[in-house]
From TrEMBL, chains A, B:
Residues 16-75 form the HTH iclR-type domain. PROSITE patterns: HTH_ICLR, ICLR_ED. One of its GO terms (biological process) is negative regulation of DNA-templated transcription. It comes from the Bacteria. The keyword Transcription regulation applies. Keywords: DNA-binding, Transcription, Transcription regulation. GO terms for molecular function: DNA binding; DNA-binding transcription factor activity. This is IclR family transcriptional regulator. Residues 76-256 form the IclR-ED domain.
Length: 273, 273
DNA sequence: GAACAAGATCCCAATATATGGGATCAGATG
DNA sequence: CATCTGATCCCATATATTGGGATCTTGTTC
């Protein structure tokens, strides 16, 4: 609907208009655009230009096109997405353990890593409850307000903790004030487990644990999420044990595999900025 | 290494060189290219051009770049890939059932649909065996030689079966001759289960079943794959029952959900050409 | 059953856009 | 400290992209 200027964006790199427009088409389709007209208005280009780019994307299997239904995301994205997921060794290693955990607890499970100032979701296991946790693999979530995010920064010093809390305030986060939040973080760090008792969203609670590689550095984290009706205090305590157990098993797998991380100062996964 | 001509390809659509080059970068990175020089030589462009495109892809989060490690596939691909997978309702619905099946049998499980003349892999569950089945989500496999492919075309008439066998011959397929293959297909169709007794690759066997939606049309299929040492005749017969059971459960879930497929003549998934 | 409508596809001259040679910069290596 | 590898930036040039409109296809209406 909004007509973005051709040479748009914030600090948009020039010299790639065509590529940028092509990617914009991908995202417009992901956002639900089905026909040419929709795409054209979404990026503010003419029908012919849009068609040419879309056709190229279809030909390369990045999009599908069916006369009746219009455009859809194509198999190539499936392939690249899957490869991107596998690129982080954590995902492969953690999967079976998380599946077992999912089977055992029935709640939604997320796996994620720290990407810059954000928590990036690498994997998601839906769980058996009715409720649907609204999150997507590949999405970024704030660090300070999610259980998973907090688990990711458990090892950082207080200066850096303040930084993350500050990021939250900038975005209108009013929830726990700095001191309360820091106190909780200290408690989480001491236990090696992070909770989220409806601090972020009402009704939603979760238990999260960090995953460490052979060097002991936190390279990822996972969380078990549910609504409060399935997550009273007692259950959270129970889960803490189960979760810690799963985390330990994953860490063991990461520590044993000799993929040779020559540079132990950097996270083993490929997403850090 | 091979320098593809800029305006390359077969019936390559013109008017999108920049976009096509950008996508080529994505694939080069997926194929393992890490640095600018590698990318540049992979697509036959100069450093500066390559750098500009790659930088745009990084900025859009389609690639990651870390000074030491070079380029990698980015989170945006993760997101789009995941969305593409979810676009086919079958994946969502089948997942939990396949996970249970995977848990029970320990073998590699694939889920796929028919895309034109190919079997497209939508999902893969690794299994607990040592062996790694070389297949990737998003990849296309021939229909006639894979168990999954055969399960997908169980409902088609013999003319169309011949068509698929013919496609195989064109690509140097010499395995079972037409009549033998047709006879097997008839048997598979009668049982509602397709086998692959090392017909495709030596040592590799699999048991596959079709998945039908509310209209009764085959919209997908899944297969349980393993090496012959885990797959003797007795086990294949056993598995047939388990597999059929899982298929029935998935079909039931597909039949019950009222997502309103107004057009029953077309497959419910979005991948058909 | 024929005219209509909606949408996709194709074509071509004008020009905004991408290109790549080379210069520069960052930081690793000896 | 000099050297090297590899990333980043700049700018005149050529060329690939653009978009207006004509055309074709397919489904809908009267």
């Amino acid at each position: 609907m909004a007509a973005k200027p051709s040479t748009g964006g914030e600090g948009a790199a020039p010299g790639s208009q065509t590529l940028l427009r092509g990617l914009a088409i991908l995202e417009a389709v992901a956002a639900g655009a089905r026909d040419l007209a929709g795409l054209a208005s979404a990026l503010g280009t003419t029908r012919s230009t849009t068609h040419r780019l879309a056709a190229a994307l279809v030909e390369q299997r990045y999009l599908t096109f069916a006369p009746r239904d219009g455009y859809g995301l194509g198999p190539k994205l499936l392939e690249l997405g899957f490869r991107a997921q596998q690129a982080a060794p954590v995902t492969r290693v953690a999967r079976p353990h998380l599946e077992r955990l999912s089977e055992a607890c029935g709640d939604t499970i997320h796996l994620g890593v720290l990407e810059g100032d954000w928590a990036l979701y690498l994997d998601k296991l839906p769980g058996r409850r009715r409720i649907e946790i609204s999150s997507r693999v590949g999405e970024r979530q704030p660090v300070w307000s999610t259980g998973l995010g907090k688990a990711l920064i458990l090892d950082l010093d207080e200066a850096r903790w303040r930084h993350f809390h500050h990021l939250g305030e900038a975005r209108g986060g009013h929830d726990p004030d700095l001191e309360t939040w820091l106190a909780r973080m200290r408690a989480y760090a001491a236990r090696g487990i992070a909770y989220d008792r409806e601090e972020n969203e009402p009704e939603v609670r979760c238990v999260a644990a960090p995953i460490r590689d052979a060097s002991g550095a936190i390279v990822a984290a996972f969380s078990v999420t549910s609504t409060v009706q399935y997550m009273d205090e007692v259950r959270m305590e129970d889960l803490a044990g189960t979760v810690r157990e799963a985390a330990r098993a994953i860490c063991r797998d990461l520590g044993w595999q000799d993929l040779g991380w020559q540079d132990l100062g950097r996270p083993a996964i490929g997403w850090a900025e």
